[in-house]
Write a structure and sequence with these properties.
By secondary structure, the chain is mainly alpha-helical. It has one domain (about 1-40). About 70% of the residues lie in helices and about 0% in strands. It starts with a helix and ends in a 9-residue tail after the last helix.
Amino acid sequence: MLYGIVQPAALLWHMSEGGFAIDEHIAETWQVLAKAIARCYALPECEYTFN
């Protein structure tokens, strides 16, 4: 999921010659990643455990 956040943003930033607001994109999508990790951690049936 991390690559799905960073790689498309980097490509858009490069293609727009720095015009794409990569900082805003990362700030918004980072919250999605954090919530996904927290939710998976909280669910006992999640196959990925962090214990």
